[in-house]
Design brief:
The protein has one domain. A hairpin with a 4-residue loop joins strand 2 (16-20) and strand 3. The strands form 2 sheets. A 3-stranded antiparallel sheet has the order 1-2-3. A two-stranded antiparallel ribbon has the order 4-5. It is α+β, with helices and mostly antiparallel strands. The protein is elongated and about 55 Å long. It has 3 helices and 5 strands; from the N terminus they run βββαααββ.
Length: 94
């Protein structure tokens, strides 16, 4: 596997973008602005690296699984109806 750090990616319409994987930048600015690889960076990544290495941690499968390992308690909202108070909640079956 090659170790591409910087490269030019050409689209089918002839437009060329400079991608720098180490700096996480691309000439289209999507890579640096959205903190996720753009299509040009993905093309460079697939040629030389594992895509997961360039995804933000909050978009990784392991992070998602870890976030939802614990049971989430039901959300209860208190709604004020004039002088009366009603509690609206989520019913769980046991």
């Amino acid at each position: 596997m090659h170790s591409l750090i910087e490269g030019r990616i050409r689209e089918t319409n002839g437009t060329t973008y400079l991608v720098h994987l180490e700096n996480r930048t691309c000439g289209c600015r999507t890579f640096q602005d959205q903190d996720s690889p753009c299509s040009h960076a993905i093309a460079a990544i697939y040629a030389t690296h594992q895509a997961i290495d360039f995804m933000p941690i909050y978009l990784r499968r392991a992070t998602y699984i870890e976030m939802y390992e614990q049971n989430l308690p039901p959300v209860v909202h208190v709604v004020k109806l004039g002088i009366m108070h009603a509690v609206v909640g989520v019913l769980t079956s046991n």
